[in-house]
Amino acid sequence: MKQILHIFVKDMRRFWPEILVSLAITAAFAWFDPKESQGARHVYGAISYSLLGGSQTALAGALTVLVPVTWWLLISRVILAESLVGDRQFWLTRPYEWKNLLAAKLLFVAAFVYLPIFIAQWLLLIVGGFNPVHYLPGLLYNLLLLTGTIILPLAALAAVTSNFARLTLTLLGVFAGLIALGALAGLVSINSSTIATPIDMRLSFGFLFSGCAAAIAIQYARRNAKAARLVLLAIPAVFILSGFIAPDERLMDRTHPVVISQTGAPVQLSYNPDPHTWFSASPVNPTNGIAITIPVRASVAAEGTLLVFEGMKVVIEAPDGSRWTSPWERLDVPKQVPGENHDYLTLFMMPGALYKKWKGTPLRMHITYELSLAKAGPETHIAMPLGDFAVPDFGVCSPLTNWMLPLNEATGIVCRSALRQPTLTYLNLVWSDARCKGKPAAPGPGVQGSGWAGTLDSAPADFGISSVKTVYFPVSNNFKDQRSQDSRYLCPGTPLTFTRYDQVQRAQAEVSIQGFLLPDLPPSQP
Amino acid sequence: MTPVIRTERLSRSFGRTVAVDHVDLTVPEGAIYALVGANGAGKTTMIKLLMNIFRPSSGIAQVLGIDSRKLEGKFFNRIGYVSENQELPEWMTVAAMLDYCRAFYAQWDRALEQQLVRQFDLPLQRKLKHLSRGMKMKAAFASSLAYRPSLIVLDEPFSGLDPLVRDELIEGLLDRAPETTIFLSSHDLAEIESFSSHVGFLEQGRLLFSEEMTVLVDRFREVTVTLGGTASLPENLPAAWLQPQAADSVVRFVHSRYVEAAAARELAGFFPSARDIAIDPMPLRQIFLAIAKAGRMRAQPAAEPANVRLDSKGTTA
Questions:
Q1: % of chain B at pLDDT higher than 90
Q2: Based on the domain organization, do A438 and A408 belong to the same domain?
Q3: Least Cα separation, residue A74 to chain B (angstroms)
């Protein structure tokens, strides 16, 4: 312990300027981050918002980026102070115990990275109107996510590089690699940033976490840079290979164990060849792929059941026996009003050459959707106040005002939630076509509006520097006229109904189409 | 007595380059062992293998009875290491560095530290980065001697230093010699000749010989034979006669296993008409040159690497 403290104090004395800068930036972040959510509510007057609020919001955004940058500075500097790569370091022939050296570095990171951000997040929860004690598991979980995603990878890279310049170059190389990987993913998927991997995110996180931790342990215990670098290189290699060789069907069966049959299921999916629905093909450059839109109809049998599309996989078979299988594509289909039948447009990308070959040929198409089914939970009825109001299991909400409007005329609802996107919630309200002019909402019929916010994910925290998330409710029918963007209003006292939805099942649903003809490309395309 | 350093067929390669090649070495306790060789001979690699900075490609090394691959942490309480190219914590002052090092060693001797500071005239409040190269070496010496290590390992410690600093460092080192074993590398033969008790010669990664300095100096002689007429080299000269040359009426060579009585008989046998025979002791520098040149001459005709090894009697193998 004596040696740990001795090295820790030495590092503290050496890096006090970096520590001060990091603490100052973290403190500034804790000060300005709440201004961002205040800015989101547009509670400022016109002048103050444009001159003060706008700049504060921008500053808060910049500080969210600067905080991890200072971590990079601190972590790299403190690890490279006793560099693990090279043969000329002073400490190599001194009686350093590697466990003590590692512990001293951990203590430094704990004191000047973890503790400040923990305190900042604690304070942000208080300022945001949340009791941090209730969110302690989430705060710790968030630190775990930050560790696996930022801190450990930075520490691992610092452990396998000999100096700051090499570390910076390596880091740039990693970013370039990630961009290249995203571009490659775009060749096989519609949305390169959300290519569906069959490996569960938790498994990926665990692999990244343990790979980086192993590289650090190898370096401290053995100073075997070659082995540690191989371990780090194995991480992206495994991620890439997993896309090709992972048993995605079996993994999907584990994560989505229920297969919805066509009879007796709460939801049934079917291909909807209605010519009025949007059924199209369009080229996706520069991949030479063709994006195909498939309209499906969801028939909801059970009252209050919500269908959430998560991903899809397509298998196409030609009459000559040739076959093509798509990767799992993540789907981002807007959620609809629960308990009703809906038409959905689902999208996948197929190779252009195959499209040309099979165009005009009746095909057999088999689509597997991965879905979540959710059920309505408790409802919360609130008469909209002028200021903040708490929504149980969701967060703290406020009327969203336009800076040109008086404070009592809202154009929407914006909320804050602690540490994570709140539980998936459906909001129902009634818009007023007329200005409020200080009057409470008039009783009687109005235009119904509704919207979804939140997620079915039940993790205690999302990855992020800030502990307070801003959540907008995109409420339907908010404009009297979409073209002129003429708003409707929410006056004080407007009844708001929040309905929480809880996940009841993760399931697979299959749709088979016989004699499917690929849609035509738009006329302007060759 | 257990040797302080012992290696067996110790080798280290970097890619295709063999830096240390099957070195067998023994350093007895209390010795001041000088490992000499030209730049690039493998001295630094050898020392880094002993200090577990590099790991051997093959063979073993033991330092203070411990496998060098396990040398870490507490074992360095007994070893002082100074290298010409070692990175020092340059942001620290001399005093801060000594303070910092002190906490690592239970046996740190404050009185000795102060004595070394005085002896080396170290400016305690100046940062290491502002010190001259000589001063930095002195600070490194002080931080490596003040805990009275059982073994001091020095890699080219005097390289590039002015004579005054060099003498101060050697003096400081010799003050510690009675209580420790010193292993140092150098390519400057003159500087180690005066105080080394043992010497080893490394060339292209191979240890050409390793023995006590007195034995080495005693068995090497420069022999000059003056003949009555024109001199020519006799046939079948002994292998221990290195660099034989004949010019005018004089034959010269280096005798590498000189023993007075036996040499007199040998010389009388080869040169019965000699008018004069002069036998002179050789400085270390000339001994090494003779060995190195002999090794290269043997290597060239067969296009094989030099492999001259002398046993304790000075015979080549």
A1: 58
A2: yes
A3: 17
In angstroms, the CA A492 to CA A439 distance is 7
Q: What's the pLDDT at A381?
A: 93
pLDDT of residue A200: 62
Asked whether residue A409 is domain-assigned, the answer is yes
Confirm or reject contact between A87 and chain B (CB < 8 A).
yes
Inspect the interface and report whether the beta carbons of B86 and A90 lie closer than 8 Å: yes
- Last residue of one domain, picked from the residues B189, B215, B241: B215
Is residue B51 within 8 Å of B68, Cβ to Cβ?
A: yes
Residue A17 in contact with partner chain B when CB distance is under 8 A: no
Looking at residue A329, which CATH number applies to its domain? 2.60.40
Among candidate residues B155, B189, B215, the one where a domain is terminated: B215
Q: In this predicted structure, what is the pLDDT of residue B247? A: 86
| pLDDT tens by residue, A264-311 | 666 778 887 765 555 667 766 666 788 888 888 887 766 777 888 888
Q: Would you state the pLDDT for residue A244?
A: 67
When pLDDT is averaged across residues B193-198 and rounded to a whole number, the result is: 90
Residue among B54, B74, B83 whose CB faces A95 most closely: B74
B-chain residues within 8 Å CB-CB of A6?
100, 103-104
Q: Do B76 and A94 touch (CB under 8 A)?
A: yes
Domain carrying residue B240: 220-302
CA–CA min distance A76, chain B (Å): 17
| Range A33-60 average pLDDT | 60
CATH number for the domain harbouring residue B63: 3.40.50.300
Tell me if chain B has a CB within 8 Å of the CB of A92.
Answer: yes
Please say whether the beta carbons of B223 and B300 come within 8 A. no
Confidence (pLDDT) at A41? 55
Q: Is residue B313 part of a domain?
A: no
Long-range CB contact pairs, B98-103, < 8 A, 24+: B98/B124, B98/B139, B98/B142, B98/B143, B98/B146, B100/A6, B100/A10, B101/A94, B101/B143, B101/B146, B102/B146, B103/A2, B103/A3, B103/A6
Closest residue of chain B to A7, computed from CA coordinates: B100
Into how many domains does chain B fold? 2
Q: How many domains does chain A have?
A: 3
Let me know whether A405 and A350 are in one domain: no
**Residues A505/A180, Cβ–Cβ less than 8 Å:** no
Domain termination residue (choose one: A226, A246, A266): A246
| A285 and A142 belong to one structural domain | no
Quote the mean pLDDT of chain A.
84
How far is B77 from chain A, CA to nearest CA, in Å?
A: 6
Task: Give domain status of residue B308, yes or no.
Answer: no
- What is the spatial distance between Cα A79 and Cα A102, in angstroms, rounded to a whole number? 9
* pLDDT tier for residue B57 given thresholds of 50, 70 and 90: very high
**Tens digits of residue pLDDT in B234-257:** 888 888 898 888 888 899 999 999
The reply to whether residue A95 touches residue B76, judged by beta carbons under 8 angstroms, is yes
Percent of chain A's residues with pLDDT above 90: 42
Q: Which domain holds residue A349?
A: 258-375+506-516
User: In this complex, do A6 and B104 lie within 8 Å of one another by their Cβ atoms?
Assistant: yes
Q: Are A289 and A349 in contact (CB under 8 A)?
A: yes
In the block, residue with structure tokens 């992206």:
A236
CB B208 within 8 A of CB B202: yes
Domain match, A51 and A116 both: yes
**Cβ neighbours of B150 in A, within 8 Å:** none
Domain of residue B262, CATH code: 3.30.70
Using a CB-CB cut-off of 8 Å, the residues of chain A touching B72 are: 96-98
B54, B76, B105 member nearest A93 (Cβ): B76
Residue in B81, B85, B91 nearest the CB of A93:
B81
Looking at the fold, whether A17 and A148 belong to one and the same domain comes out as: yes
Task: Check if the beta carbon of residue B254 is closer than 8 Å to that of residue B220.
Answer: yes
pLDDT score at A195: 43
* Residue B79 domain-assigned (yes or no): yes
Averaged over A157-163, what is the pLDDT?
95
Q: For residue A442, is pLDDT > 60?
A: yes
In a domain, B311, yes or no: no
